[in-house]
Amino acid sequence: RNSEKAENSANACQQEDDELVDLGGYKVNKAVIDMLKLGPAKTAATYARELLRQVFTAEELLGKSITGKQSNAHKEKEARPQLDPIRVNAVVKYTCTKFHLLKETAVRSSLSSMLNKGKE
């Protein structure tokens, strides 16, 4: 059921509609942005996580990483494939702009943490 919801959300992001919002290289339906305003996203980190879940399907997120690089903490483990950098950068930049953040580090770190928790 959640995968259907995620798939429908991702499809809503890609629909051709008069009301598209440019996240910075990737456009989403304005309804997605409006929905996030109603949701629990109160911090930049939670907003970015919710937006990432709308831009990617659950299947796309599974087993992926933000950078595609090997972890310094787990050198023995193979690097996981990188998510589409255009969509990731769009989510990060849009979130940073919305929350008036000068650095992307905290947002990227939060997204990496989210992906690590759902890697299996």
TrEMBL record:
It comes from the Eukaryota. The lineage of its organism: Eukaryota, Metazoa, Ecdysozoa, Arthropoda, Chelicerata. Residues 22-120 form the BEN domain. It holds the Pfam family BEN. This is BEN domain-containing protein. GO terms for molecular function: DNA binding.
